[in-house]
UniProtKB/TrEMBL annotation:
Cofactor binding, per record: Binds 2 manganese ions per subunit.
Full protein name: Peptidase M20 dimerisation domain-containing protein
GO MF annotation terms: metal ion binding; metallodipeptidase activity
Annotated residues for binding of Mn(2+) 2: H98, D131, D194
Binding site for Mn(2+) 1: D131, E166, H444
Segments forming domain Peptidase M20 dimerisation: 208-365
Sorted UniProt keywords: Hydrolase, Manganese, Metal-binding, Metalloprotease, Protease
Family indicated by similarity: Belongs to the peptidase M20A family.
Alphabetical list of CDD domains matching this protein: M20_dipept_like_CNDP
Binding residues annotated for substrate, in chain numbering: D194, H227, T329, R342, S416, H444
Active-site residues, Swiss-Prot/TrEMBL: D100, E165
Highest taxon above the source species: Eukaryota
Length: 478
């Protein structure tokens, strides 16, 4: 029996023990956006540090500063840095994950207490089970199992666990920049397990993420709210101007109307076209998840392209307008529309902001309104793209095939994980996204879960990946 097979066997034997450990940490309500839960977030970070130190890892707690949250000045949760093994003859793998979770209340529609892990048939239901406590725990259990089995870990393992990912990773970038040539020095490759399969049956490797540029579009008019019966039809109404401008941004087929916005987009190559063949994706499954068929495109390949590799614009809401139940005949004095663009290779955030601002200024001028309009960019995160032919990805593919018996789909994702680019740019090494969870896990939603199969096989996958990295020449030309 090979060392990897011995590892797999012990993982299978330890399934229930692993589930109980996941139950323990799901029970820590580490909600980073809730000031009243800040002590729980810190407790979760300290749990991880203590557990890693118990098996011989060297850990370093970094306190990244303070923040104002819900009227209180709070310490940001600690970033837990660690290292297991320091053999100069071995490669060094850095893994990242987050131990904070999204808010969850039973009254939101959960069928069970969100902070009590419940086994329902083949599912493990609880907040954080898939995002991201299951994968973060998976790395710990991987190393613990190697140690229990008497198997030497084939690489040096470094890790970075943060407690603010669900609240914008505040403070993390500064930590990575400061530690790039210190704690992270000597890193050969990075692996992140904080995303999901394209479907529910077939594993994947992810080699691209879209960026996001977020805007507030503000229209100001009178000095105070007005009565529509007195002033309607006699003044330029900010809400009317705002709705007109928002409607000009994107059509009902998802086509962005900002001139020049598509000029920077990387063309689709024949090689890329081939990557869409045989993927585990269907419109019927998508419509089932959506609870209704509202899909724009008739071709599944086009749907994936608009999800992964074309820019999109979404309108998110309006601040300052009346939104409570009932009727209110008010003309709001100042309103803000909120929208974002998901950007793709080779779009530059600065150029996107220029195009969006110029277009809205031109459209507002056409209204001949006496109101004042302002475009405010509140966030500009860049896209990330990596070659799936890099040796790090090939190691991930071989590990996936060893565990699941199939070649993984090669996917990109429409969302953003900004830390991916931060690691790549500051450490100068390749980053692999190696998901554990499935497309229907419901991260951020009610009844979040991870399938038992994905949790247990995922722990095997993380271990198999480390063994493959150890045997792979990372300097080979991708």
């Amino acid at each position: 029996m090979s060392t990897v097979e011995k590892y797999f066997e012990l993982v299978d034997q330890s399934q229930q023990q692993f589930i109980e450990t996941l139950r323990e940490i799901v029970g820590i309500p580490s909600v980073s956006s809730d000031a009243s839960r800040r002590s729980d977030v810190v407790r979760m970070g300290e749990w991880l540090q203590a557990r890693w130190e118990a098996i011989g890892a060297v850990c370093k707690r970094v306190d990244p500063g303070k923040q104002m949250l819900q009227g209180q000045e709070l310490d940001l949760p600690p970033v837990i840095l660690g290292q297991y093994g320091n053999d100069p003859s071995k490669k060094t793998v850095l893994v990242y994950g987050h131990y904070d979770v999204q808010p969850a209340l039973l009254e939101d529609g959960w069928e069970t207490d969100p902070f009590t892990l419940v086994e329902k048939e083949d599912k493990l239901v609880g907040r954080g089970s898939t995002d991201d406590k299951g994968p973060v725990l998976g790395w710990l259990l991987c190393v613990e199992t190697h140690k229990q089995a008497g198997i030497e870990l084939p690489v040096n393992l470094k890790f970075c666990w943060e407690g603010m990912e669900e609240s914008g990773s505040e403070g993390l970038d500064a930590v990575i920049v400061a530690e790039a040539d210190k704690w992270f020095k000597g890193t050969d490759v990075v692996c992140i397990s904080d995303n999901y399969w394209l479907g529910t049956k077939k594993p994947c490797l992810t080699h691209g993420l879209r960026g996001v540029s977020y805007f507030h579009l503000q229209v100001e008019g009178p000095g105070a709210d007005l009565h529509s019966g007195v002033f309607g039809g006699t003044v330029h109404e900010p809400m009317v101007d705002l709705v007109h401008l928002l409607a000009k941004l994107v059509d009902n087929k998802g086509r962005i109307q900002v001139p020049g916005i598509y000029d920077q987009v990387m063309p689709v190559t024949e090689e890329e076209e081939r990557t869409y063949e045989g993927l585990e994706f269907s419109h019927s499954a998508l419509s089932s998840d959506l609870k209704r068929d509202i899909v724009i495109h008739s071709d599944e390949r086009d749907t994936l392209k608009h999800r992964w590799r074309f820019p999109t614009l979404s309108i998110h809401g309006v601040e300052g307008a009346f939104y409570s139940p009932g009727d209110k005949t008010v003309i709001p004095a100042r309103v803000r529309g909120k929208f974002s663009l998901r950007t793709v290779p080779n779009m530059e955030p600065e150029k996107v902001a220029q195009l969006v601002t110029r277009y809205l200024e031109d459209e507002f001028a056409k209204l001949n309104s006496k109101n004042k309009m302002t475009v405010i960019e509140t966030h500009a995160g860049r896209w990330w793209y990596s070659s799936p032919d890099h040796p790090n990805f090939r190691a991930g593919a071989r590990a996936t095939e060893k565990v699941y018996g199939v070649k993984p789909d090669l996917t990109r994702e429409g969302g953003s994980i900004p830390v991916t680019l931060t690691f790549e740019e500051n450490l100068g090494v390749n980053v692999l996204l190696l998901p554990m969870g499935a497309a229907d896990d419901g991260a951020h939603s009610i009844n979040e879960k991870i399938d038992k199969r994905n949790f247990i096989q995922g722990i095997k996958l993380l271990g198999a990946y480390l063994h493959e990295v150890a045997e792979t020449d990372m300097t080979a030309t991708a």
